[in-house]
Amino acid sequence: MQRAMADKTALELLVHGVGGATPEKMLGDPRTVRITGDDTAAVYRRTDDADAEARPDDYRGKPVQEAYVWCGLTSGNGARALWLLLLPFMVANLAHWMRPSARGRARTVRLYGVLVRLLGLTLTVLLVAAACEVALDLTAWQCAGTPSCAEGRAWLGFLSPEVSGGGWWSQPGRRLALAALVPAALTGLLWYLSHRTWSAYESVEPYPHQAEQEEEPQLSGLSRPGFWYGRRFVARLRAAHTAAGLLTVAAAVATSAARHDRASGGPALLDVTGRVVEGVLVAGGLVVVYVVCRRGRKDQTLDEHTDRFAVTVLPLAALAVLALCLVYAGWDRPDWVSSGRLPGDQTFGAIALVQGLLVVVLTLVAHVLFRSDPLASTALRGLGGPCVALLACALGGVMSGGVAQRVGDWLDRGATPGEAEGPLPGPPVLLSWQAAVIPLLLVVVALLALLFAARTLRRRRLEQTRVERDYAEERPQESRTRKIAGARATAALTDSAPVLIGWVAAITFLLGAGALAGAWMSGEVPGVAAAGAPGFIGGAAETAQALGSWLIGFGFILFVTWGRRAYRDASARRTIGILWDVGTFWPRAAHPFAPPCYAERAVPDLTWRMATWTRQTGGRLVISGHSQGSVLAAAAAWQLSPAVRSRVGLLTYGSPLQRLYGRWFPSHFGPASLTALHREVDCWRNLHRPTDPIGGPISLAGECGPAVDHPPLKDPLAYGRTPAHPLPAPILGHSDYQADPAFNEERAELLHRLRPTTEPLGAVPTQPGPDSEENQGTPGLAPG
């Protein structure tokens, strides 16, 4: 019976790409049924195919199609639109996985991971420091301490000494202690979101590995047993970042009070207490840094252990230190009067300096790793990770400066913060210098965009000749040829992305260093510092600062507005979901507050489905992945045991496996890893078009014909009107590969090559438990 079923039954598992898809559209049938899964991610079949295994004669010569729909993992409910505010954390996490491939550099590889994790920690401190700047400095210290600012604001009047008549809350220390609840609540919210997504994503156990699977050469980290199971590591990192945020709030409150106690010559007890509190804060910061640096991801085994100290004790201890600092700051100090700014200049300057130094060291480390294994296809010669890490820091700075500038403008009642006629000193000087360089950065980006536009026009003229050659049997039409050539030239812009990102990162670093140096040397905002300069220079500086301040605030408002729109609008939420599809494929390795990794749910889903169906039926299986779905398909194939992997065919189309992932993530998708995957699966074919801006060739030779890649597909299918296409054929680009006849041909060839077998594939392997080598087993999924 199994032999008969194996001879006749074949399964095609469809995996959609970015943007999502419905099972009805993927299967071409309005009547579908869920086979396994839940409302977030599930496998569907046509209703008529639900019991296909019981009717093998009905499926002779054709596969049973299943659709794995995973778009709910990235663009489901409206709350996920708020993930947009976590974009800097996501970008920093990408930098971890962009490490160049290396040979014999284990310590250097670990150092690379430590540096990226430290950069992620500085982003958390920067975000919380920005919240402290708004709540403590601008609101509780400056505005509440200025009568003209506090008047007319009932919610702030009780904190003002003049408006409230010297009420209990009007002392600066108590105002700061009360305002500190806002950034502390923000830190708690980040902890809650991270914990909730951690329990839903990182806690999904992957398909258990067999002994033979664990002993095979690990040419790609994606095949390791614990790669898609970051439960222990993310919990440890979340606790450290939560403690760092709480300690940042505590430092913002306590250091101001301690500075006053030392300067005023008050009671010795308060002075000693302030020094002790500062020492505790320094010690707590060192413990947090140690926890972040000590341990990275452990992928070789399924890590089920729990670090109780790091996960539980560290955040609670930081919360206790914060409570101590609030009590210390709220102590009675009748002579304390708020004036000027809190020491935000030193805080933001120190964060910017540390981030710059970390990026420089990370660049050197990445260069050393690249030199050990110099793959020519690697983007930016291995410096993609440092460039992306720098852009993450810049994005965090823009968001922090934007909210500070907008709140400062709002509290100043229309005056420019920091100017002599304004009631408030305004945000830190460094933020104004950073705002002043933004217009220059935008000018440079615009020039680069013009350069790439000119290159695209030149490439389009070259492509016109190729289009005429590809459709030589057709009568040329200038407008049609130009349109097709334009689509090809625009698609080629993807290959120029490394140059653009490299230039933007280099210019951002130089302008950021200039802003930091200018703020420390002048101590003034650019417009004031240039007041004694010639008229043109001074006017240009003032204009740049004002324009940059407006742009940075407008950008932040636009960011929040987009997130709010996505919260209410499903179509906008799907657009943001595309961003997460690309950016959150990788596990959280550098920042625990980044949006969760959907692949930690999707890859185990696909692996379980392929392994259990193949084991129970012995039939043929082709996993068919489009765009990002091809990346998930490859990752799931890596997780299979060699016995199962050798009985699976892989069909990819519009695939970014080599064009994007192979160039930007060479340590996991480099030529050696893709070659090993091709060697271990039964067969692999890849379809691509010259008009596709995302997908491209895999560029691997193999047993399925002369190479993995099918020759580039024609797009459009017909140049003019033909009997088969009486209406103009559209330029499909990245979509609808199934419309090309080559798709069905390649799928049929894959199914024909796969040989059914009656050899037992073995029981579902047992899974290691926390206290033993193996547990009592894990049940498999039913095929339907």
Automatic annotation (TrEMBL):
Keywords per UniProt: Membrane, Transmembrane, Transmembrane helix
Keyword ATP-binding: no
Transmembrane segments: 111-131, 176-193, 239-260, 272-293, 309-331, 351-370, 382-404, 433-454, 500-523, 543-563
Keyword Membrane recorded: yes
Region (Disordered) location: 744-784
Full protein name: Lipase (Class 3)
Organism of this sequence: Streptomyces indicus
